[in-house]
Structure formats: structure tokens, C-alpha cells
Amino acid sequence: MSKEFPAIQPDIIYTRVDEAPELASASLLPIIRAYLRQGGITVGTKDISLGGRILAHFPDNLTEQQRQADDLKELASLVNSPDVNVIKLPNISASVPQLKAAIRELQSQGYAVPDYPENASTPEETEIRMKYDRIKGSAVNPVLREGNSDRRTPRAVKEFAKKNPHAMGRWDPHSKTHVATMDRGDFYANEKSVTVQESAAGTARIELITRDGAILTLKNELNLHPGTVIDATFMDIQALIDFLERQMELARMEGVLFSLHLKATMMKVSDPILFGHAVQVYFRDVWSQHEKTFQELGVDPKNGLGDLFSRLQKLPAQSRERIEEDIRQCMARQPPLYMVHSGRGITNLHVPSDVIIDASMPALIRGGGKGWGPDGKPCDTKCVIPDSSYAGVYQETIDFCKQHGAFDPTTMGSVANVGLMAQQAEEYGSHATTFAAPDDGSIRVVAANGETLLQHTVRKGDVWRLCQTRDGAIQDWVALAVKRARLTGSPAIFWLDPGRAHDRQIMDKAKTSLGKMDTHGLDIRFMAPREATRISLQRAKEGQDTISVTGNVLRDYNTDLFPILEVGTSAKMLSIVPLMQGGGLFETGAGGSAPKHVQQFVEEGHLRWDSLGEFAALAASLDHLGQTKNRPRATLMAKTLDQATEKVLLNNQSPKPTTGELDNRGSHFYLALYWAQALAQQQEDGELSRIFLPVSSSLHDNQERILGEINATQGHAIDLGGYYRCNPDKLARAMRPSATLNAIIDGLS
Q1: 290-326 pLDDT, tens per residue?
Q2: Which of 407, 446, 478, 664 is 20 to 30 A away from residue 50, measured at CA?
Q3: Is 615's pLDDT higher than 90?
Q4: Considering only CA atoms, which of 384, 349, 381 is closest in space to residue 365?
């Protein structure tokens, strides 16, 4: 147990995370705890931050005071309890460069954690590498999401967006922006899928049979349950290279930016490999000229151009400058790259985690199909999405916008989502069963009874993976879709492709389940993703609401794409995960913009992170507590919090982007004020009304002073004592700068 976590399980567990959400928690969490304590509701924390997870894996390297409990492991157990209630904020899904940066920072703070061994050569280094590999990428979400996802835009957020529409870029019907995807050799084309029968259930294995007949075990102890849908596929790397070469040449000829859109965080094994091949293809001339030097420096293309530049600093100035000049000349010959930050020269190929498809594609579409070029100007863009499984969703959206123009947020309908993600479903649960083929041969899945369930012929370097989707998760997903369709009256569309092996298995199970349920009066449809996209966009344009019922990856994509078009951000989504054992997991929205927010706060003392997602998740968490535990005060706290949140929105008191204006801390003050007022004015609980009446008055009377104390800290650089692991005292001073507000809130204790 962590030191601040009470021995008795708290009513609500609030996760400690990273970057802007963690900064915001330093301001918001004291308010939450103080208010809820008056209703007898306890709030504990669990540290699932990148820094916390690193420390938890290396206790033997730390002093007794430095040791960190493995809170993620404990949470993974708790989410299978019927009593658990977790508010989960966005955390870093670390790429290797991020992981290394966090290690360096921890070491500089006195934590003797080991370096990341890129080329492990001893048993000790291999063990260290295995521990770090469990931390990198999406190490958190798959183990906590023991339920399926119910994501939608809160009513208050939607109404605010209609009255205060966000900017939308103008679409030119002749825009050259488009999606480029593979038509052979990709994961989609090579997929095979079966449902595990009772006779094949048990402990299976994955093995490679080389061309000379040798058998290499890739994975032992693979548990397969009856009724589970398993699918295997691979990316033909030579086909990928051919595709990338062709698309780079076409981008140059078409006069558009070249951009690569992957998910190197969630797909932490496969997508960094694809990213690395893109880096090598784009800089082929540089790699061929300096391959020996790169090998000596330990350059790994999977880590991107930024890592290459960093390693070049080890060379003598003359050698380094020659290579840097070769890189510049290569870039001049190739198509211009889509930029992450034009002013700093940070390209799409700098860091694998910088351009994440579910954030980058919706932002580009919202911006009228324009990406930022090296010259700092917007430009039409070739959006390269190598695997074709879901690429059509974005092409369909681009085509729709070219034909109809940008959406109007004042009239646009909503597209909610019911997502199949329980028990590490589908691709996002495939980390441990994804491999770069170590040799030519055949990779197969062998069941406990000796039966070969799936098999592919591969070449060395091809990326092969196995996914599982448990039968119980599928049944729960279908039931949740029916529940949401009945509650809302909206059509529920299952986004399943009859041309895809995996989707055919899921479709059969879904239709069988629906046949056993009461669906009278419901509009339930099955469509391939491109058709479902087109219908959903058309309905949204007409102001109609739709429920997208999708697998795990499309859950991720859709719950960014549609909210970013509807309300300007996905961070304000209400994300409820009804856990299969009866507990509740309440997620607070996306954190893709969090690094830029931290950068601005450190440089200017202004945090523009909007905690609206946290407000919505907390209200849903309290409502769940009230309903499942018969806690009327929890229900009342949820009701009054919703009223306060709506007032923050109606009064346009969410954080502003510009330094000197209202920021995250000021927005939290207004939430505290309106929540206290709602609690003071309600008539259901006289004791709470009496407690919060003086709080409400003090906050109201000291409003000008409190905001003045907060705003006085803006316009100055902020020292947090760290990025991945802030100094607690410095963080508290930065995020709670108003002595007046602190005295009122802390006085409730």
C-alpha cells in the first residue's frame, strides 16, 4: 500500500498520473477531498505515473524511504472487485525516448534505477530490459479496463459547444489531402481468425518453424478459454517498405506533406517497428552512407530522428556536422514532412509517440485538412496509415468534408461509443503475443491438444501478432450496446467488416446474443466501418445522434474523432467503464495535449488544461457510489457537482489558452464556489447546507482576492523540480498559490 493510502479501502480511488492532469490534480484534489469529507466520503490515491511505475519495479535499487508500492498491480486486482470505484486520469504511455528521459530524471533526483539496456547482453541486463518493457507503451489501460466502455459527450458540454462553437478550418473541395494505406501484405490482408472450441482450450503455445525444420518457441503458457475469438496476422515488411517508398515519391510529385500516423503507445511492439522502417526509408541515403557510424552510436530508427540527433552529439564536431548536412540534403530531396513543431524543427519522424493517430488525424480534419509544413505554413497532406484495417474511417471523413464542408458545432449531432475493450480485448491486448519474426519460416498457434489453430508463412523481420477477445467480454459489450440504445433511443450501429476474418467471428457472436435479448423497438444495425462512418457523419450533420458500437481500436479512434469535431476536444468526454464484476472505472478523457500544456505552464505560469473531464468523471463516480452502496450523500454530491460544472460552462469559466487569462487553477476556484453554493442552497440535507453556507459566503466574498493571488503567479517561469516526477512541495506551491483559497478549503478539514 502506498504511504498516503488508508488501510481501509476508500470509497473512491483517484489515480496519480503525469503531465498536465497531474498538475491539475494538485489543485483540484484538495477541493474534492475537503468537500466529500463533509459527506462522509473518502478519497484515496494510487500512483500509476510513469515515474511511479519505474520506481515500483526496482525496489532493490532504492532506499527504504524511496521505495514505491506497485499501485498498478494492486489496482489491476481491485478492478475485479464488486466494490471498487476508480477515477482514472490520462497517463503517459511511454515510448522508449520518453522512458529513457524519465529514467535520467529519476537518476538525477537520487533514485538509483538502472539505465535502459537497449542491447541486453547479460542475464542481469535481460531482466532489467524485461522490467522496463513491461512499463513502456500502454502498460496501464489494458490491465485496468476489466469492463467495456460507455463514452459520450456530457449534455452540459454539448450545450456549451453549441452556444460557443469552436473554430473549424475551411474545407476546399479540391483539397489534395488524403489517406494512403496498403492494399496488400498488411495486418488486414493477412488476418486469420477462429473461435476456440472446448477441445482446444487450455495452455497453448506460439512457435516458429524455420525453413530448416528447427522449432523456436516464441510464447509458452498461452491460456486459451473456450469461446474466445483468437486472430493472428502479420505485416509483410517488404510490402511495407515498397508501400512507403511509393508514397514518399507520390507525396513529392503531388506537392503535399508526407505524414505518418500510427499508435506507437498502445501498439508498443508493432508500431514502433513500422515507424522505424518509415524513418529508414525516408532517410535511406543517410543510413546507407553512415550505417557503420550509426551502429557504433547505437542508433535505433524505432526511436526516431530526435534520438539520432541526440546520439550524434557524441561525435567530433566535424563528423557530426557532416552527417547533419547529409540529413538536411536528404530532406531537401524528399517530400516535406508534416511537422509537430515547425518553429523548433520537430518533424513527424522525430519521436514515435509525438504523432498518435487518434489525436493527429481528427485535429488535421478539424483544421480543414491542413498540416503544418517545415516553413510554418499550412499545407495539404498525405496521411499515411500503413495498415488498412481502420484507415477507411479517416478517408471517408475527409471525403465527406470535401463534399459538404466543415461541420457546424452549433447544430451537429453526437456520436457516442460503446467499445469492446474488457479483458484486454483485440489488438490492444496483444503486446505479449507480438513478435518480429526472428527467421524465415512458419509461425503457428498450437493448442493444448496439439491442434494447429492458426498459421502463417513469414520472412525474417515480419511483424506477427495474436489477439484474443473473450466470450464474456463480447456478451457484456452487446448487452451494454442494447442498454444504451434503449436509454437514448438512438440507432446503435455495430462497426464490423464482413470482409475481415476477426469481425466475422465477432458478428456471429453479437447476432446470436442479440437474438436472446429484448430488442423490440430498437434500431440496431451492422455496417462495415466506412459505411458506418458515412451514415454517422450524415446523421451528425443533420443534428441526429448515433451510437457507434465498435471494437477496441475504433473505440479509441471514434472517441477522439467525433468529439473533436463536435466540441473541439476529446478531453471533455464522459467515459464510464462498468466493470464486469460490478465495480466502476471512470475515465477522464484524452491527454494527448498534456505535454504542450506543461511546457506553457513551466515557461509562463499558465496552465490551460481543462479539468472538465475530471468533473464529469467524479460526478459519475459519486452517482455510482450512491446507487450501489445506498449512500444518499454521494448522490447529492454528484447532483450538486453537476450543477456547479454546468455553471462553470455557462459562465465561460473554463481555462483560457492565453497567459494572463483564467487558467486551470482559476477554473477550479469557480467550481469550488458554485459547488459550495449548490450544497448550501439544496434542501435535501440540512447539515450539509449548514456546513457549506459559510464556505459559499467566504469564497464569494474573497473572489477578487483569490483570483488576484492566482493570477499574480502568471507570466513567470515555474520550477516544478521535475517533469516525470515533480517535487511535491514545489508542485503544491505552484498549483495552490492562493493562501486565501487554501485557508477556506483546508478549514473544512
Answers
A1: 999 999 999 999 999 999 999 999 999 999 999 999 9
A2: 664
A3: yes
A4: 381
C-alpha 236/C-alpha 256 separation (Å) is: 27
The answer to whether the Cα torsion of 45, 48, 51, 52 is positive or negative is positive
Element (H, E) at 113: none
Angle between helices 501-515 and 471-488 (to 10 degrees): 60
pLDDT of residue 596: 86
Nearest to 35 by CA among 712, 640, 489, 722: 640
Alpha-carbon distance of 239 to 112, in angstroms, equals 44
Residue 569 reports pLDDT greater than 90:
no
Q: For residues 19 and 35, what is the distance between their CA atoms, to the nearest angstrom?
A: 25
The amino acid at residue 286 is V
For the record, the C-alpha cell of 544 comes out as: 441526429
Cα–Cα distance measured from residue 50 to residue 96, given in angstroms and rounded to the nearest whole number = 12
Residues 10, 40: contact at Cβ < 8 Å? no
Q: Report whether pLDDT(438) > 60.
A: yes
What DSSP element (H or E) covers 737? none
β-strands 415-419, 546-550 pairing: parallel
CB 545 within 8 A of CB 488: yes
Rounded to an integer, the average pLDDT of 534-541 is: 98
Cell 526516431 belongs to: 304
Mean pLDDT of 665-673: 98
Strand-pairing partners, residue 137, are 94
Give the residue among 523, 521, 530 at the shortest CA–CA distance from 495: 530
**What share of the chain in percent tops pLDDT 70?**
98
- Residues 6+ positions from 310 with CB-CB distance below 8 Å: none
Give the integer Cα–Cα distance in Å for 413 and 419.
19
Task: Say how far apart CA 265 and CA 353 lie, in whole Å.
Answer: 6
Cell representation of residue 193: 481468425
Query: CA 244, 553, 261: angle at the middle one, nearest 5?
Result: 30
Q: For residues 169 and 407, is the Cβ–Cβ distance under 8 A?
A: no
pLDDT of 3 higher than 50: no
Beta bridge partners of 174: none
**In the β-sheet with 452-458, what is the strand arrangement from edge to edge?**
215-224, 202-210, 441-446, 452-458
- Cβ atoms of 17 and 36 within 8 Å: the answer is no
Taking 70 as the threshold, does the pLDDT of residue 285 lie above it? yes
Answer for the pair 544, 407: CB distance below 8 angstroms, yes or no. Answer: no
Contact 429, 560 (CB under 8 A): no
Beta strand spans in 6-111 (E): 12-16, 43-47, 85-88
Residue 87, pLDDT above cutoff 90: yes
Q: Is the pLDDT of residue 436 over 70?
A: yes
Distance CA 322, CA 328 (A): 10
The Cα–Cα gap between 58 and 36 comes to 35
Distance CA 674, CA 639 (A): 12
Q: How long a stretch of residues is the chain?
A: 749
How far are the Cα atoms of 153, 158, 164, 544, 584 from residue 416, in angstroms, in the given order? 7, 12, 21, 11, 19
Amino acid present at 38: Q
Q: What is the 3-state secondary structure (H, E, C) of 370-430?
A: EEECCCCCEEEEEEECCCCCCHHHHHHHHHHHHHHCCCCCCCCCCEEEEECCCCCCHHHHC
Neighbours of 557 (CB within 10 A): 23
Please determine, for residue 142, whether its predicted confidence score (pLDDT) is greater than 90.
no
pLDDT in the model for residue 4: 41
Q: Which residue carries 537520487 as its cell? A: 110
pLDDT tens, 231-284? 999 999 999 999 999 999 999 999 999 999 999 878 889 999 999 999 999 999
What mean pLDDT is predicted for residues 182-207?
A: 98
68/51 Cα distance (integer angstroms):
10
For the chain, counts of helices (H) and of strands (E): 27, 24
